Amino acid sequence: MNDSEIKVLVKESYGKIARTGGSCCPTKGSCCGTLPPEEISKNIGYSEEEMNAVPQGANLGLGCGNPIALASIKEGETVLDLGSGAGFDSFLAANRVGPTGKVIGVDMTPEMINRARENAAIGGYSNVQFLPGELEDLPVEDNSVDIIISNCVINLVPDKEKAFKEAFRVLKPGGRLMVSDLVLRQKLPLSIENSIEGYVGCISGAVMKDVYLDAIGSAGFGDVEVIEESPFSLDFFVSDSTDQAIDQSPKMSAEEVNGFADSVSSIKVRAIKPR
After folding, report:
1. Structural domains in the chain, sorted by start
2. Which terminus of the chain, N or C, has less C-beta within 10 A?
């Protein structure tokens, strides 16, 4: 698949998720598994208070961590949410920045933008706006954002280096990047790496941890630090797509299948744009 084909595939898959209503779990090919969104969110670090503080339907269980928890968002700041989906993290950030702050959510899937805007109207949020756009070409001005958050999205972006360069561009000097994402601890079998199902499922698009961190540093960021790292259970994401990819890989040995489950980690990364 080339980059354009990947983007079309991701848009189609997440457009279906946005249209299903309250849960992504009935939809094949997404960064979630068979667990309800609330249970997934609890398992990856969200509190009951946080889950109850956003409009119903904003939490689709698509994350792999809680970037808000360690972001140190302050009142009055401008926050950019990369791959904002139905608005879950954007609304949590909006609650922290208050009426004097602003949150911008960017997503390339039109259905997600529409759903997030509907949720913002339901919740009465006047300090949040959702913009259509790609992470490699953000519709945001230079040096205009205090903090960037992103949750399990950059692994889906074909050109990760360009995405991080765009993040660097829009951050103010001294601005912070706080990302939760999936990375690889060991290379995937080629049969999974090259599968369509694996890519949509946030697996095949993931890169080795050192490659991911190097992309952040190469964009110009300093103080790049992994705050948390833990194995990411396959139960939390893409059960259907992962199973399809494995089932369609007759050359995978039993050893490869067993090793696959230990290949993926969830990390929280913090970095700073130098002043």
Report:
1. 3-272 (3.40.50.150)
2. C
